[in-house]
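Lecture notes, part 5. Sequence design as translation. It can be helpful to think of inverse folding as translation between two languages: the language of shapes and the language of residues. The source text, in structure tokens, appears below.
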């Protein structure tokens, strides 16, 4: 059973009682992410995410870790382009403890300067680690160009320069301005009672009265591009894409069905054509990145330098076939079962259910049942998929980024419509 309570200051509390489990997953979500940062603030949401575990007025960082370890629980956090979440999972008998810990770090973290300096070095190492991971890096490079001149282009973790410049005053000001009650959702799923959970939370959260006026979000203009970033690697990592679906796009179910057929399963067209039939890549997949007001659908592959051009042509050929013929009824039926199966299998995790509660509340302002989603998936037709793809995909404006030992000539031959933007390893 799903229940919702809105506190007097606007904070929303959403729970799902699952009486047959022994755990509770709880998360404090704020509808704020890297797209809400100004240029000098790049990476600040992610920095705050780290700092909230580094000590409060009542607890040191070690105290926080010890209290949860002592009951077999765990806590973590993540930052995305549009949200930051602080979450934990414990046995149901320890719910009062996890509520106390999470509300304490959320409301009373001290942001001690020495802790900030130490964590700054950790984040700089995290940035270096991502730079050394070509699969992660090519996605970041691609999005920097695809969302160019918009905050969605910015890496979630910021840049070394902005991270070095962040200080306690900037963090506290950002939280007062952005962590407003109306943007906060507390979600919990597991063996708990809603009213008792609200009673645990209300004394602490009712006192939050941040009333800042953050800048409103604005939608990006998409930038088709042909980008080559030369880097000394064993493989060439490629990423290409085109407009996708937003979180609430009426065509999102068609988009996700297409994603399964194109490259998001082992039986997909790209996995079979690129890997199984031709042996061009070990890793190849399609993906959908959705945001509040826009989205991206793309394809990733890592291939030998000599096979880049063939791989790109195979990918283009598969998308051209979908544009001309849509997908088959057999593919449609299999994709629907894949999506529904994934949804129900994830539903067996209290973490997944907690995430789903929060995301539905943030995006739609209400609970959306599994049956409702299943009905929407079942309603998709091959014509719906064809029509959605026709509106999203145009070969002449597809965006492409290549990372590795590759020349611009490959893109000039495969994608002649848009000039290539080249970058060297030294520019990174």
């Amino acid at each position: 059973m799903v229940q919702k309570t809105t506190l007097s200051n606007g904070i929303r509390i959403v729970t799902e009682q699952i009486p047959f489990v022994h755990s509770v997953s709880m998360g404090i979500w704020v509808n704020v992410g890297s797209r809400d940062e100004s240029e000098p603030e790049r990476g600040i949401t992610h920095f705050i995410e780290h700092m909230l575990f580094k000590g409060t007025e009542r607890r040191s960082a070690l105290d926080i870790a010890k209290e949860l370890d002592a009951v077999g629980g765990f806590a973590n956090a993540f930052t995305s382009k549009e949200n930051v979440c602080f979450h934990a999972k414990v046995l149901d008998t320890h719910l009062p403890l996890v509520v106390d810990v999470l509300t304490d770090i959320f409301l009373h973290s001290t942001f001690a300067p020495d802790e900030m300096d130490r964590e700054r070095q950790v984040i700089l190492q995290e940035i270096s680690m991502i730079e050394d991971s070509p699969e992660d890096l090519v996605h970041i490079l691609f999005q920097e160009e695809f969302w160019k001149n918009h905050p969605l282009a910015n890496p979630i973790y910021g840049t070394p320069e902005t991270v070095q410049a962040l200080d306690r005053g900037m963090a506290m000001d950002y939280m007062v301005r952005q962590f407003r009650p109306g943007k906060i959702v507390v979600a919990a799923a597991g063996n708990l009672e809603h009213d008792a959970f609200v009673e645990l939370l209300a004394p602490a959260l009712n006192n939050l009265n941040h009333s800042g006026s953050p800048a409103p979000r604005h939608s990006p203009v998409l930038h088709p591009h042909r980008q080559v970033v030369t880097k000394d690697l064993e493989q060439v990592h490629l990423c290409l894409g085109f407009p996708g679906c937003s979180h609430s796009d009426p065509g999102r179910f068609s988009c996700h069905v297409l994603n399964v057929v194109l490259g998001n399963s082992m039986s997909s067209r790209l996995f079979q054509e690129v890997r199984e039939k031709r042996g061009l890549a070990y890793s190849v997949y399609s993906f959908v990145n959705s945001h509040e007001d826009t989205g991206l659908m793309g394809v990733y592959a890592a291939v030998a330098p000599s096979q880049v051009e063939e791989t790109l042509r195979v990918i283009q050929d598969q998308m051209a076939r979908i544009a001309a013929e849509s997908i088959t009824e057999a593919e449609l039926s299999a994709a629907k079962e894949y999506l529904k199966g994934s949804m129900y299998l994830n539903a067996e995790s209290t973490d997944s259910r907690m995430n789903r509660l929060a995301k539905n509340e943030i995006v739609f302002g209400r609970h959306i049942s599994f049956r409702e989603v299943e009905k929407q998936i079942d309603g998709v037709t091959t014509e719906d998929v064809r029509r959605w793809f026709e509106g999203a995909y145009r070969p002449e404006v597809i965006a492409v980024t290549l990372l590795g030992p590759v020349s611009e000539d490959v893109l000039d031959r495969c994608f002649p419509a848009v000039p290539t933007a080249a970058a060297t390893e030294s520019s990174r």
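The translated text above is only one of many valid answers, since several sequences can fold into similar shapes. The chain has a mean pLDDT of 94.
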